[in-house]
Amino acid sequence: MAKHNIAVLAGDGIGPEVMAEAIRVLDTVANKFNHQFTYTHALAGGAAYDEYQDHLPQATIDICKNNDAILFGSVGGPVHLQHEAKWANCEAKSILALRKAFNFNINLRKMTIFPEIASLSPLKPELLKNGLDIVIFRELLGDVYFGEHTLSEKDGKRYAFDSGAYDEDQVKSIVQYAFNVAKTRGKKIVSVDKANVMAMSKLWRQVANEVAKEHPEIEYSDMLVDNCAMQIIKNPAQFDVIVTSNLFGDILSDELSVLSGSLGMMPSASFSNSGFALYEPAGGSAPDIAGKNIANPIAQILSAAMMLAYSFNLHQEASAINNAVKAAIVAGYRTGDLASGQAGEKIVGTKEFTDQVICNI
Ligand code: NAD
After folding, report:
1. Residue 192 and residue 310 in one domain
2. In a shared domain, residues 125 and 215
3. Do 122 and 259 have their domain in common?
4. Signal peptide position in this chain (predicted)?
């Protein structure tokens, strides 16, 4: 029997709704596999601002520190209210602040396309016959995001300058993590860089090659980022695990996130060097559909499954959740965002979709 303590930060909009469903799923797994999960709820985003006039109060950080992992919902208000203090920079002040507070240097997003709902994808159906399951790792604390940025004048012309840097430890930390995850999946990894031009990428490629030598059981290759952006569209099934730097990961992970056809499908995780992690859906708080029992809970439920696998080493339990979600889709159950008009589809609400997942567990 495993015992784990989870900090639950549901946030705003659909966050609390889909979080409640993920917790029902976790409780089902705890019962079935005889584990004990204890949840401590804390405020983040606009919900925290209402109580503390702070989007990430110290009380929330302390609760996160005292738990084994963070399960995060989503934060933020309607886009037309972003000028209000409650919602201004809400995402940066809570989720980015949380990343900074815990030194999360590795981000992972998982993109799954089930063949049954492949018609929602902008990709051609023949590319998706067997579905897709791709994980992308993005480094979070280096690259041009943390360099110098100047926009000025030089020699009478407007002039711009950006700098970026990586050291070998930063690269090794994420590449090593990506290899460890590749071992639990399809044993195939592609490291993406721009080593034909950039010094940061040359170092990235050197270090990635060194780490690859320690893992001969994993099929490893390098790919230039421009080629990778094309290959994701032309032949996505070739990818299992992608690992890349901050800037390229920002762009490629957004490219991957539109392939499934709904933002409600993509779980993500952020890890620090110490192994501490936060799990969250990749989408936002969707205020336009909040409180209506129509949000897709899959990304939140799969984020909880990732937590079981990567933070608690409960791989069988994580697979039980992943398979249960897949079985609900195969049986025709869909939230509204996944409706494609095909015969046999049963359009259900957030709770009712989760009921099916729970039955399948
Ligand atoms: P969004 O991701 O919230 O919504 C975009 C569209 O996708 C909306 O039409 C929404 O209804 C739909 N959608 C998103 N998740 C869904 C789900 N689970 N089920 C069904 N449909 C879903 O992006 P937005 O509208 O640009 O932003 C809304 C708020 O979310 C903003 O305040 C933004 O800052 C915030 N945001 C937060 C995070 C985060 O918490 N990590 C990430 C992105 C955006």
Report:
1. no
2. yes
3. yes
4. none
Pair 245, 285 in one domain: no
Decide the pairing of beta strands 188-193 and 219-224: parallel
Output the six-digit token pair for 226: 């421009």
Q: Are residues 258 and 307 in the same domain?
A: no
72, 74, 301, best to mutate for ligand 1 pocket (most atoms within 8 Å of CB): 74
- Residue 74 CA: which ligand 1 atom is closest? 40
Enclosing domain of residue 169: 111-266
Residues 230 and 350 in one domain: no
Q: Are residues 319 and 301 part of one domain? A: yes
Helices 298-310 and 315-330, packing angle to 10 deg? 160
Please choose, from the candidates 166, 157, 162, 228, the residue with its C-alpha nearest in 3D space to the C-alpha of residue 192. 228
In whole angstroms, give the CA distance from residue 40 to residue 60. Answer: 10
- pLDDT digits over 72-91, tens only? 999 999 999 999 999 999 99
Query: pLDDT by residue (tens digit) across 125-169?
Result: 899 999 999 999 999 999 998 889 999 999 999 999 999 999 999
197: tokens are 């031009």
Catalytic (active-site) positions:
145, 194, 226, 250, 254
- 98 and 118 in a common domain: no
How many A from CA of 11 to the centre of ligand 1?
A: 12
Q: What is residue 340's predicted lDDT score, i.e. its pLDDT? A: 85
Among 216, 236, 266, residue at a domain's last position: 266
pLDDT band at 342 (very low <50, low <70, confident <90, very high): confident
Give the E-state strand segments of the chain in sequence order: 3-11, 36-41, 69-74, 106-113, 132-139, 149-154, 157-162, 188-193, 219-224, 241-244, 267-271, 277-281, 333-334, 346-347
Residue with tokens 């029997």: 1
